[in-house]
Amino acid sequence: MVESHTFKVSTERGDRLDKVLTKLLPQTSRSQLQRWIENGNVTVDGEVVKPRLKLKIGQMIQVTEPQPQKIDLAPEKIPLEIVYEDQDVVVVNKPQGMVVHPAAGHPNHTLVNALLYHCPLSTINGELRPGIVHRIDKDTSGLLMVAKNDQAHQSLAAQLKAKTTAREYLALVHGVIKEGQGTINAPLGRSPKDRKRQAIVADGRPAVTHFRVVERYNKYTLVACRLETGRTHQIRVHMKSINHPLVGDPLYGPRKTITGQGQFLHARLLGFTHPITGKRITLTAPLPPIFRDLIVKLRRQSRIEASE
User: Fold this and answer.
1) CB within 8 A of 160, min separation 6: which ones?
2) Which of 70, 131, 137, 212 could link 121 by a cystine bridge, Cβ 3.0 to 4.6 Å?
3) Which residues are catalytic?
4) Model's pTM, two decimal places?
5) How many Cα atoms occupy the beta-carbon half-sphere of 31 within 13 Å?
């Protein structure tokens, strides 16, 4: 049975909807409440609104909890490419096409299922995301750090928040970038036009991407992107915003693009301070074959056209 709640605003004018709901529904996390608001499960005076809506006294809030989807999280014997491991942390090179954790539409065969078979994981992120400190998209390959216990998880999460981790991606984008480097500072949030996409929005969360050109080809550029923040689809949206969308990107790229297995984006470098020993750890992962082979092909084509 779907549970519904109705509240009449009696708080001071100007309090945010998501903050008020965390007090009214303390058993539900703020992030979950924000998802409910964004998905239309929360209305104010009958209207679908945004999490940051400033409430007024007397308004009526209606919360309809979504029907929970039963997901049985089970260990699965799936091969993993482990780049680093000790008793506290494991770092994997996630292949393109693998979902990080179970969710609606992807109840199993995820990285978490594979990790549960391999080792114990922290419990801080709940039963569907054990050990997961940060994520990368399904069709993005590369390095991901995972916590084996709660102490390690708290430390790694704090480093991400303090921006002391190092995360560098290689991205192949459309067009030839003239500048050698640049910074994109633009807030990101859910697109008001398409709920499956992220977009640059005025009331979005701060997002900063630093990029530098690695190689230029005839119609494409290979860039290294350093993340200062880690928002959903950050590199994909930011690069599109400067008219250089990622090659192969099914959401943000042009229709005419190079066919692959999704966007050509690879998390090649990861640096963090070990949560127990305090030692600085920096790891790298080579490009997957499909990405590496495309770069070789583009180099060859660029040489041929330059000589003609």
Assistant:
1) 133, 134, 230
2) 131
3) 137
4) 0.77
5) 2
Evaluated on CA atoms 293, 298, 303, 305, the torsion sign reads positive
Rounded to a whole number of angstroms, the CA Rg of the chain reads 21
Structure tokens at 196: 């499956």
SS (H, E, C) 9-74: CCCCCCCEHHHHHHHHCCCCCHHHHHHHHHCCCEEECCEECCCCCECCCCCEEEEECCCCCCCCCC
Token pair 């495309």: residue: 294
Task: Give the tokens for residue 135.
Answer: 């994520």
Res 69 pLDDT > 70:
no
Q: Dmax of the chain from CA atoms?
A: 74
Q: Which of 91, 96, 142 is nearest to 119 (CA)?
A: 91
Q: Which pair of structure tokens corresponds to residue 187?
A: 């807030």
Four-residue CA torsion sign, 183, 195, 165, 239: negative
Cβ atoms of residues 186 and 207 within 8 Å: yes
Q: How much is the pLDDT for 122?
A: 93
Q: Are strands 220-227 and 208-216 parallel, antiparallel or unpaired?
A: antiparallel
Nearest to 298 by CA among 267, 264, 252, 250: 264
Place of tokens 């923040």: 229
Q: Tell me: the pLDDT tens digits for 147-168?
A: 999 999 999 999 999 999 999 9
Quote the distance between the C-alpha of residue 37 and its chain's center.
19
